[in-house]
Amino acid sequence: MDNDNPYKAPQEFSRADPGPEAFAPYEPLTLSDALRFELKTAALFAVVGGVLGLAIGIIMPNYYREVFNAFGDPDFKPSLAGMLLGFMQGGLLGVFAGIALLTIVVWSRRRRRL
Which pTM was predicted? Predict the structure, then answer.
C-alpha cells in the first residue's frame, strides 16, 4: 500500500538559529565615509534643485518676478534666480536627507548587531 503513493510525507521544519556566520559582516562606517556620503547627497540634491529652478525660471519667468517683486527691474534674470534658489534649497534638503539616511543605516546596523 505504501508503494502506491509517489509523494513524500512533509518533513518537520526546524527553526534553528543560523548563527552569526549566516550574516555577512558589515564594513565599519567611518566618519570620512559618512561625510563623503553626506557631501554626495547634498551635491546631488543641489544639482537637481538647480535644474528644476532653472526650468521653472525658463518656463514660468513671472513666478520669480512675483516672488522677488522684480516686475520693473530690467536686469532681473528669472532663470538665474531660479537656478540659484533651487541650488540652495536642494542642497539644504540634501543635507537633511543625508542625515536621515545615515541615521537609518547606523540604526539598522546597530540593531542587526545586537
Answer: 0.72
Per the CB < 8 A criterion, the answer to whether 36 and 101 are in contact is no
Tens-level pLDDT at each residue, the chain (114 residues): 557 777 777 776 666 666 655 556 667 788 899 999 999 999 999 999 999 999 999 999 999 999 989 888 889 999 999 999 999 999 999 999 999 999 998 888 777 665
98 close to 38: Cβ distance less than 8 angstroms: yes
Enumerate the domain spans of the chain.
Answer: 30-113
Task: Find, among 105, 83, 92, the residue nearest to 43 by Cα.
Answer: 92
